[in-house]
Every structure is written in structure tokens, then in C-alpha cells.
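2 proteins. here.
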Amino acid sequence: MKSYFIGVDVGTGSVRAALVTRNGELLHTSSKDTKTWSPKVGYFEQSTDDIWKAVCSVVKDVTKNVPSNAVKGIGFDATCSLAVMDAEGNPLSVSPTGNNEQNVILWLDHRAFDEAEFINSLKHPVLKYVGGKISLEMETPKLLWLKRNMKEQCWNKAEYFFDLPDFLTWRATGVDSRSLCSLVCKWTYEAHPNGNNGWSEDYFRQIGLSDLMEQNWKKIGSVVKEPGSPCGSGLSEQAAQELGLQCGTPVGTSIIDAHAGGLGMIGCSAGSVCKEFQTRLSLICGTSTCHMAVHKDALFVEGVWGPYFSAMVPGYWLNEAGQSATGKLIDHVIDSHPATAQLKAKIGKNMHIQQYLNSVLENMAKKKGVASVSMLTSDIHVWPDFHGNRSPLADPSLLGMICGLTLAADEENLALIYLATIQALAYGTLHIMHVLCAANHSDIQSLLVCGGLSRNPLFVQTQADVANLPVLCPRESESVLIGAAILGACSAGAFPDVQTALKVMGGEADIVSPRHKEHRYHQKKYKVFLKMVEHQREYRAIMSQD
């Protein structure tokens, strides 16, 4: 009988599952949308009941044609959202509506702005592990918000505060263990190679959450495991029945969704490209982009989250940078242009609009006798922080800029602005790389790319040209699901360790090589790119004068 593993990915708007073989081949996938409530501006809430029902649906779907005893392990990843349960394990409302179904504060919820500002004003040493400043997307600001604003309705009644990946393993096994990935990356838990791991009592006292120290940190986690290690005795009887699997099926300790993408592709093979983990910078590209780099040494990089020990690859320190809007930015630039409506009507549903714009650019290059599409943008420049800068400037107040606009409003003008935006996103990656290298993360020899934008050849080639490095595109493009399945495989003992698993299940990758003439062109545009943010700050300084 063949053996299979299941990877479950709980994203921002949907739950996905995949049936995966030991060599990393995806056989079946399934997806189901989840609910999100937004009762106030900046508030985004979800339901653990709704999420778990979706998990059960997609797992049953991908396993409907295989015997349940052929599934040897299951792994989960999810967004780093805050789930709250009462003493009976039932959902407890985090919402001003009081509806207990709404018991998850989604990662992108911004209600804890004041709490994050307060925590950062204390300048506690633990913040050096998050680039110097905690984000309001992380969990301790959200916990402080609940205590300040919903003390009677929620805080005093809560028995469990889970990161969503940990809720999933708890719901699957009944065992209250937590993932090192979730706690280190989003909760300020400290982990070190010498095993001196734990919560900072001083930090929680200073920020006003010392009551979480009670009963050995029971509400936020005292049993902490590395991703992929077994959770309890596997699936509980109830969860197994709900999922259509066998009781006791091994369950891997979970991981954050973007980190699952890094795990799923960092071990891929691509010809003679170096396979050492710390030579690879992983880009998980979606609405936003996460840039993941691992190293044997703890490297502190201003404006970049981490270093986090064993948060993604056991035994390695992780630095996590990112861009707050990438796929979302490209969509915005396209959708807000006056030529788009007519263009979409022309091409219909037979072709993706980005594919069509790529062809427009090719035709423009031929007509103008330009050696490369890249060189069409010498007069158009973009600073891409339309939603603030996550890394390396860590300034959420920065705004987008476009230089070189004309009165043109046709599809060729749209194509040029679209191209300049893609280039600007690649310059953002280069900016992150320069900061990493300045902090001794100087071994980077290749980029790895997964997610929606990895399917756009112009985006991938531009990343290669700008960085002057090969870009590896895993042939199995669903790297996040592969990463989750790796956790299930490791929990089942299919591999001696996570490092071996990710090399086997990561599969093969195609190589997109840099073009040196284009790189020289981009070096000039990158100088303009850096000037643009200098100018934005100069303009603000002028306008703030009395």
C-alpha cells in the first residue's frame, strides 16, 4: 500500500489541503473559502469553528479516493492570527459585537496600534529580536488590547490564547502544545541553541500582562515544540472522525503559513546551484511578500524581524523581511488605470491581464528597437510602498510614488507603469538583500520564489536581473502545501529529521538566469529608487516646517 501525507494551509481567505507523496508530488488539492468579519475600520475577525469546518471539508475531499490507513501523517500551517477559547474549549468573542463565533483577531487587524506604540516606547531588550520594534500584527499588542478593552467580556474568561497554527494542532489532537515557530516569531518567546528557552517575565511585567505568567504560562503555552515534531498521540478520536482519517494518525507541530512556503522550497535541487540553506533567499509572494533567510549565526538586522532560532529550519536562525504590498500593488496599479476596463473587455477571460500586458511590452520593445523590455522604463520610476514599508526601513507611514507620468491613458501607458512597478518590487528585494549583507548575511547566491507572482515570467526574470542572481522556481509550485506536508511526514517518522525531509520533498526547480546587460540598466534605476525615498522624506520635512 502506498503512503501519503496531508498538508493543510489556512490562509487569510481560504483553507487548502493537499495529498502528497513521500517524494513531494501533489496528487490532489482542495480549497474552501472562510468567513471574515470587519465590524469596524481596521478590525478583521474570523471564526475557529468556521475554519475547522473548512479544514474537515478539504481534507475529506483530497482523501476520498485513498484508504484512511494510507494517510501516515498530517501537518498544518496558518496565518499568525490570535484565537481565543474559554475554559471549556469553546470560542470566546474578541469582537465588539459580542458574537462568540468571532473569536479570531486576524493577522492584518490594526486595532492594537496604541498598544504597539506603548510597548515600543519601553524599548525592552526582547524587541531586538523583532528588528527593534514590535508590529501591531504580532500577538502581545493584541493581547494587551483585549485586556484593556474587553476585560470582562473576554480577558477574564479566556483559558487559551492560541496562535492559529497552534489552535489547529490542539483541535486535532486535544494536546495543548505550541509551535516554536509561532511563539518565537509572533509572541516574543525566546529560543537559543543552548536550550535556554522561555518567556521573558520582565517583558510581560513591563507591558502589563504579568497575569499570563500564572500556572506556568498556561494560557499562552508552556510546552513548546519544534515544527514537525509529533503532537501528542496523533489525531484524537473526535478529530479523526471529523476529518475522515484514522485515530492516532501522526500530527506534526505546526508552522506559520509563509514559513511553510520557505520550508517547502528551501531544499529544492536545481542543477549546480549551491544547495546550502544559508545561500538561499526565499520569496513567498502573494498579496504581500515575505523574504526568508536562514543562517547558522544569529544576525541582527535593523528593520528585519528576527533572528529567530529554529523557527523554520531546525538549527538555523531565521531573518524575516518583507514587502507589505506586492501582488496587491500590481493589481491596484492595473485596476486604477483608465485603460483597464476596456482592455479587460477586449481580452475577456481567456488570458490573464498580466500575461496580455507582457505581450504589449514585447511588441513595444520591437517597435522601438529596444534591446530588452526592461529598458522601456528609463523615464518612469516607482517607489512601491503604497501600504508602508515593512523592510528594511520598517516605516508604515511611507507612501507610494510614481515619477514620469504623461497625459497618455492607453494600454501602452498602462503596460509601462505596470513594468516600472514590477521593477520597483525587485529593487525592494535588492534593498533588503543589501541590508542583510551588511549584517554579515553575505552568503546569498540564489533566490527562491513561490506564490502567485512566481507564475509571471516577467516578475521572475526581473528579480533575477536586478539581483544578478539565479532565481529558482520549484516545479511543484504549491510550496506552502508542501511545507505543511513535510511537517506531517516528519511527525510520522518518514525521515530522520526535517532537513532530510525538505531536501527530498522539495523536489526539482527550474533556473531563471540573470542577464548582465539588463543588470547594468537596473543598477542605474536602483540609484533613482533610493533617491525617491530620500526625496519623500525631504518633502515631508519641508511641509512640517512652521
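next one coming up
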Amino acid sequence: MTQAPVTAPADAAPTLRRPDPVTEWAAALGITLLAAFLRLWDLGRPHSFAFDETYYAKDAWSVYHFGYARNYVQDADKNILAGHVMGQWDKGAEMVVHPPVGKLLIGLGEKLFGMDPAGWRVASVVVGSLMVLVMIRFARRVTGSSLLGLVAGLLMCFDGLQLVLSRLALLDIFLAFFMLCAVHCMVVDRDWGRSRLVDPVTGRSWGARLWWRPWRLAAGVCWGLALGSKWDAIFPLAALCLLMWFWDAGARRRTGVRWSLPKSAIIDELPALGYLIVVPLLVYVASWTGWLIHHRAYEVSLSNTQYGPYWGNYLHQRTHGFVAETIRALRDLLHYHQDVYNFHTKFLNNAHHVYQSDPQGWLILNRPVGVDAQLGIQPGQQGCAAASGSTCLRQVLLLGTPALWWFGTAAAIWAVVTWAFRRDWRPGIVVVGIAATWLPWFRYDDRPIFSYYAIAIEPFLILGAVLLLGEILGPAPSPGQGPRAAAVLRRRYGALAAGLIVLLVALNFAYFWPIYTDGLLTNDQWLHRMWFKRWI
């Protein structure tokens, strides 16, 4: 008996609704330029090393002058802010506890625009603005809707946490950007692979062999850059690789492949080890090139640190030749990583910081981080219009836009339910992405960790929000329906509700704008924005 051919389902290949690409890209670039304008506004304020900028901005400056991070003299911060940017280095290599990619980008901004607050923040502005554009394309790819993609970009554009991190020389915005790029490439690869698996196969076949996966290669490069910014990327990399396996297996099963999960593990995931393990590792090690070239400086300064043991007796031996020197440099780098790991897991265990927060409350904004504050500004100074007996202040607060984060948290709960009860792959990205970028921090809640680490969660939170907004919006009416049809009314009411939610986010962002950008406020105006005691 001849077996009937298996017909590939309609959703085996991606089907995106394509409006006019010129209009679509013009709208996306317009939102990106709006984001860039908001992030560039008065970028040099505050004129200080805000929060941990004192580490990353100075490390970046020394990397571009010496190839590695150098120690600084005691009054370096004060001297640099006064304009004396050269000759502030002390002897010896500095113990840095994060990889170099973010600092290389910060240093590029300093090299191009100067060693001042605007110069060391401009790289974050560029990356934070580009992150909005990638968010638009990512959400559009997942939802199949250009409108929802643009809404996702607006939501990120109007988020206070993303805005403030895009205006500071910290590393987390670089981590979040490269991670978002990596996940976007993985979703594009999902569609790319399915478009080549649409032909029906017999039940005993393995299906097409897709050895060359260009988007998977791009994802590997982005994951390497994310890891080269902060190690936090390791958890979402592992989780999303598992999710990718289920995508691959599902694609083969839908074309008739039996035992698709184990077969996909062999035919898809073994080659994926090269794309998503080997490539990121190579990119990560390459990001340490300056360190490797100057590894001898670290042998002298840090081979016996407070974080770990002696690096080994090989330090007392001479090496000759490129191969031997490379092996020694890589060995030094391995021991250096042991020291850094000990710092993060042991040295900080008994530390405390006034702005540290429990990760269980990050999604609902339990404890923002005060980056900078100027208190006691008297009436008449700097334009202060406070009443007699009161004063003004300026503050920069790392706080997400509450309307966005609270709606996004509700959307995340909705995504869990939807993924569990519907055959829809899209909420799975939201659930896995949030879990992988959030839950690992519970292991380290006994040491100082901060709510702004949640910037890595934000793209998945926004994706969940636009998926829920799409559900609220409802399906487009079928052609030929009259103006009084129920579907048309449903769409109108859905559009009104979804539009009001987006408008609420924008208005909420505008209300908090002064505490995102070091704006001048009276004490009463500031207190009106401190909705909870834990925000103070």
C-alpha cells in the first residue's frame, strides 16, 4: 500500500504581512531618531562620574591608551572632570571584574568626542537608540505585524530604565542590546529554516540537511559580544538554545518527520554547537585581545590577589616563541577569570549597598537606583522657583516607566497561560526569555544586586506587552464585511483600548522625565513622583 504524501501545513513557512517597505522603514527610523533625540538631550548632565561610571569610563580611557586597564591616581575623578584627562594613571594593571566589549565601545566614544561626561556616554546613546530599532524589527518578526512592531519600538523609546541606561557609561545597555540582536537572529533563523523545510517527506526520513545557517552564525557572533559585555548572557543563551531545539524539532515534525525531537538533536543541534557555542567562545576570547597582549602586566600586578590563589609555578619560567607565549597568555586569562568569579561569588557576599534590591520585585519596580542627586538648591539658584522655606533638587533615578512595567508584568502572566493552553510559539519566547534573564538572580540575592539589571528582561517584557496588545486589538475584519459588523466594532474598541494603554505609557514617561534627566524640581514636585517609600 502506497503511503499518502504528507502535506506541509501553512505555518511551516513564515507569512508576514508586508506593507509598503518604504513607509514601514521610514516609521521605524523615525521612532529610532526620536529615541536618539531623547537620549542625547543635555547628555553632559550630570557633570560627574555617575554611579559606576567611575570604573567603566576610566577603564575604557586607559584601554585606548595602553591596551589594558591601568590603575588611576587618587584624585583622578576630580582632575578629569576639571579637564586634566592625561597623566592620571598610576602604576600597575587594574583588577576589572567584567569583560571588555562594553568598555571598548565606551572608549571609542571617548576617543571620538572627548574624555568628558558626554564623551563617555555617547556610545550608550548610540547602542540604546539602535536597540529601539532592533526591538521594532524583532517584534515585527515575531508578531507578523508592522503596527505591533512600531508599538514595541515606542514602548522601549518611552521606558525610563532604558532611557537612563542609554545616557550612562554602564555595561548593562550593551549586554541587553547584543542579547536582543542575538535572539532576533535566532527568530529569523527559525523562519529561514522553516522556509526550507516546506516540502513533504515520508515518515522515516530525516528531512532536509541544513548545515549552513547564516542567521545562526550571526546569532553566535551577537551572543559572543553579549558575553563579552557581561557574563549574565550565559543563562539566556543556554535557555534559548533549548527553545531553538524545540523549534527545529517542531519544523521537522510538521513536514512529516517521525521522532523529530531526537533526530533534530542530531541533524540540527549538533551543528548548532558550532554556531552557538564555538563561535561565541571565539568572539568572547577575541574581545580580550588587549588583555592577552599585555598579560605580563597582570602577572606582575595580580597573580597573587585577594580573590584567588597563586596562578601557578609557570610564572617563574621563561617562554619563547609565539605558540608558547599564546598558551601562557591564555593560561593567565583562565586564572584571571577564576579571580573574577571568586570576586562575584565570594568577595561580595557580606557587602551591602543602599540601593540593592531583591530580584523578586524587579518587574514591579520595587527599588530603583539613585544615580545622582543634587539637594538643597535654594530659591533663585539654577532657576529654582520653590516657595520660601523650601528648596529644589535634581536627581537621576534608574526607574522603569511604571505603566509599561506593570502592564508588561501582567502580559508576562498572560503569556505563561497562553503558552500553556494554546499551540502558539510566540509566548514561549516571552516566558523563556524572562525566566532566563530574571530567575538566575535569585541565586545571588544575598549580595548587592540592583534592579537595573532587569534591562536584559525588558525586550521580552515588551514583546509580551505587544502580544497582549495584539490580543486586545483583535483580528482585522474580513473583506466584504459591512461597517456595522461585529468584527469591525470589535476592532474599533480594541484599537481604542490598546491605543489608550500606549498613550498612558507615553504620558507616564513624560511625567517622570525630570527624574530621568537630572531636571530641576521643587521638593513637592519630586515627592509627587515618589509613589512608594522604597523609591526614596
